[in-house]
Specification:
Enzyme class: oxidoreductase
Radius of gyration: 28 Å
GO molecular function: flavin adenine dinucleotide binding; FMN binding; NADP binding; NADPH-hemoprotein reductase activity
Distance between the termini: 38 Å
Number of helices: 22
Structural class: alpha/beta
Family: In the N-terminal section; belongs to the flavodoxin family.
Helix content: 25-40%
Oligomer: single chain
GO biological process, one term: response to hormone
CATH topology of the largest domain: Rossmann fold
Number of domains: 4
Subcellular location: Endoplasmic reticulum membrane
CATH superfamily of the largest domain: Flavodoxin domain
Shape: globular
Largest sheet: 7 strands, mixed
Length: about 675
């Protein structure tokens, strides 16, 4: 049930001879409810054009679309639009890019709408050709190991597994990926190719954005050529200069009752006060933190071991899954941003979409306060993209400041280079931008509209549910670094977690979490040998794997050779879970191979140990069909480890380069080679 409020049923004594029987009461209540609904519906329609009085105090409704609302074709037809931009987004970037394309369409006589494939009847793509000069654009992120995002999975499966006739469909695709991952932009590449195979007409070339570099640059470079091509294709002309338009209108609501104001809930009002399963991304569980201890023994860095209590939540997890956590922004940053915008942070407001056909009525749950929005809903530490800077420029009172922001948000090569230097390389967030451009004072509501939504942070679970069924363990390094401007930037989630310490005599601190399932799994048979490579916090999922192997052995089962490659700087400083690992090693549960990079003159990393152990590796993966796992840094470590593995397969297996590549691909298909990596 996704009700906004719960109705209390009065209790009392029932007389022996009721005036109305149960059936009469049901009929009467149904009749009254139907009449009230009809009258309210009529009144709402009447008021909608002129005022939002009745709408203004209604909290956001999530996923309650009717079949008619699911029809993007009907929305396009009823509003005279020809452009629909679908997004597959896990962190919000693809959704943001889709919104920008739809908004820009007005300049090119292509009024657009943004659509979530998960909320649409995607079979209607076959009917889009019936709308004259129509175009479907797909902004699709590749997630994990070459997978579609959660909201795009059904669409991906649909085009993959059906022989559809897409003749007459005009389309373009922009993919979002990361070159440090092996399956770079797999989803965007596949959808672009598959739509062509099904007979659709590619209007513009596939765009591929790399998040390891400046994905913003890739996107604006692509759309710079995209729009002229679209104009040529449809025989239309640009209406001229870029017009800055607000997507949402502000409604201040000082009279809304406290019980109707969102205070950090993800979707359902009061969901953090009245918790009810199932718990997921839109309904997180407020988990008590039972343990939060430091793992580093010395040095200036910090690594936390955190245990979340999930007893009574009905949440289940397995070793290899991820824990997702909703953090809050730093209080000081929130205050600074409020002052820079001359805002009263306690003001209650709603931002209401000016596009009445959009299924997204608000950018985040409304009504709420500016303090709550900046604390719980907006990514204020993210580096602002060029479209944000372009809109902030309009609020500069000094012409030189206005010109500077316009320049670094332009598509000119010099402007792009300055954006890279001033924003990217200097790690300036929106607070820093406003501090360094003193004449820029945007209204707080526009800042709230422009900033992306604060996303959950994901951590590899470092425990096994077989040993810890009611707690989930996480291993996290505290992120903080000095920028080129001399500021101290802090990670949103780890800074938030670092403050959550359980104290005797006090209620346990609580954090909103949910479990995300993974394909990162131990082999079904415990006797299958495994090799695990996890330096630093890459150890996290393997701690759960080792716990599981130990559990199997204690149950009397035979366990296969379990080899762990772990690396850190110094044994006396950052050898996390040392006592546990050494104990497992002594008891024969794990074959421990540890590299301490700074404990000797010449640095030693896990890659050096792997190069020494080619016989062991081939024995496991070649002769005994074992499994190979990597967890940690995608950019360098994971790539180096894969290359070493290829070398072992070539030399020990007597295979060519191409055959070795195919060997690993076969291992991946058999789920014998798995990576849980991040950049």
């Amino acid at each position: 049930m996704d009700a906004q409020t719960e109705t209390e049923m009065p209790t009392g004594n029932v007389s022996d001879e009721p005036f109305l029987g149960p059936l009469d009461i049901i009929l009467l209540v149904s009749l009254l409810a139907g009449t009230a609904w009809y009258l309210l519906k009529g009144k709402k329609k009447e008021n909608q054009a002129s005022q939002f009085k009745s709408y203004s105090i209604q909290p956001t409704t999530v996923n309650t679309m009717t079949m008619v609302e699911n029809s993007f074709i009907k929305k396009l037809q009823s509003s005279g639009r020809r452009l629909v931009v679908f997004y597959g987004s896990q962190t919000g970037t693809a959704e943001e890019f889709a919104g920008r394309l739809a908004k820009e369409g007005i300049r090119y006589q292509m009024k657009g709408m943004v659509a979530d494939p998960e909320e649409c009847n995607m079979e209607e793509l076959l009917m889009l050709k019936d709308i004259d000069k129509s175009l479907a654009v797909f902004c699709l992120a590749t997630y994990g190991e070459g997978d579609p995002t959660d909201n795009c999975m059904e669409f991906y499966d649909w085009i993959q597994n059906n022989d559809l006739d897409m003749t007459g469909l005009n389309y373009a695709v922009f993919g979002l990926g990361n070159k440090t991952y092996e399956h770079y932009n797999k989803v965007g590449i596949y959808v672009d190719k598959r739509l062509e195979e099904l007979g659709a007409n590619r209007v513009f070339e596939l765009g591929l954005g790399d998040d390891d570099a400046n994905i913003e640059d890739y996107f604006i470079t692509w759309k710079e050529k995209f729009w002229p091509t679209v104009c040529d294709f449809f025989g239309i002309e640009s209406t001229g200069e870029d017009v800055l338009m607000r997507q949402y209108r502000l409604l201040e609501q000082p009279d809304v009752g406290a019980d109707r104001i969102y205070t950090g809930e993800v979707a359902r009002l009061h969901s953090l006060q009245t918790q009810r399963p199932p718990f997921d991304a839109k309904n997180p569980f407020l988990a008590p933190i039972k343990v939060n201890r430091e793992l580093h023994k010395a040095g200036d860095r910090s690594c936390m071991h955190v245990e979340f209590d999930i007893e009574g939540s009905k949440m289940r997890y397995e070793a290899g899954d991820h824990l997702a956590m909703y953090p809050v922004n730093d209080r000081d940053l929130v205050e600074r941003l409020g002052k820079l915008c001359n805002a009263d942070l306690e003001t209650i407001f709603s931002l209401i979409n000016t596009d009445t056909d959009s299924s997204k009525k608000h950018p985040f749950p409304c009504p709420t306060t500016y303090r709550t929005a900046l604390t719980h809903y907006l990514e204020i530490t993210a580096l602002p993209r060029t479209h944000i800077l372009k809109e902030l420029a309009e609020y500069c009172t000094e012409e030189k400041d206005k010109e500077f922001l316009r320049f670094i948000s332009s598509t000119a090569p010099e402007g792009k280079a300055k954006y890279q230097e001033w924003i990217q390389d200097s790690s300036r967030n929106v607070v820093h931008v406003l501090e360094d451009i003193p004449s820029c004072h945007p209204p707080i509501d526009h800042v709230c509209e422009l900033l992306p939504r604060l996303q959950p942070r994901y951590y590899s679970i470092s425990s096994s549910s077989k040993l810890h069924p009611t707690t989930v363990h996480v291993t996290a390094v505290l992120v903080k670094y000095e920028t080129k401007t001399g500021r101290l930037n802090k990670g949103v989630a780890t800074t938030f977690l670092a403050e959550k310490h359980p104290n005797d005599g006090e209620p346990l601190p609580r954090v909103p979490i949910f479990i995300r399932k993974s394909q990162f799994r131990l082999p079904p048979k415990p006797e299958t040998p495994v090799i695990m490579v996890g330096p630093g916090t890459g150890l996290a999922p393997f701690r759960g794997f080792i716990q599981e192997r130990d559990f199997s052995k204690q149950e009397g089962k035979e366990i296969g050779q379990t080899t762990l490659y772990f690396g850190c700087r110094k044994r006396t400083e950052d050898y996390i879970y040392e006592d546990e690992l050494e104990d497992y090693s002594k008891r024969g549960i794990v074959n421990l191979r540890v590299a301490f990079s700074r404990d000797q003159e010449k640095k030693v990393y896990v890659t050096h140990l792997l190069e020494q152990d080619s016989d062991l590796i081939w024995n496991v993966i070649g002769e005994n069909k074992g499994h190979f796992y990597i967890c940690g840094d995608a950019k360098n470590m994971a790539t180096d480890v894969r290359n070493i593995l290829l070398k072992v397969i070539r030399s020990k297996g007597g295979l060519s380069e191409t055959e070795a590549q195919q060997y690993i691909k076969k291992m991946e298909a058999q789920k014998r080679y798995s990576a849980d990596v991040w950049s």
